[in-house]
Design brief:
35% of the residues lie in helices and 17% in strands. The chain is of the alpha+beta class. The chain is globular.
């Protein structure tokens, strides 16, 4: 993950594509780095623990993505994950 510090998602996506192309040029062929997504807003709690809005197009976010938090723990019942995810999604829609 790279923090570019730009004000818009569209600018972050453009810089992400440029960075992927630059880094791919340094790799031995056929290794290629591809730009995937932007997280904005994004909260890094610890390594492998973060929530954020997942953007693949600059117009609208795709979903609320949570990694390593209570919403994705396997020892919680599915109701807990559904409740937290639906509440989070309502806050950002």
């Amino acid at each position: 993950m790279v923090k570019f510090g730009v004000p818009t998602v569209a600018e972050a996506m453009e810089l992400g594509r440029e960075a992927a192309a630059f880094v791919s040029a340094k790799f031995v062929k056929p290794i290629n780095l591809e730009f995937e997504k932007v997280y904005y807003p994004y909260l890094l709690i610890n390594e492998k623990r973060y929530p954020g809005l997942y953007w693949t197009k600059p117009e609208k976010f795709d979903k609320m993505d949570c990694k390593g938090l209570e919403t994705v723990r396997r020892d919680n019942c599915q109701l807990v994950a559904n409740l937290i995810n639906s509440w989070s999604a309502e806050k950002f829609d």
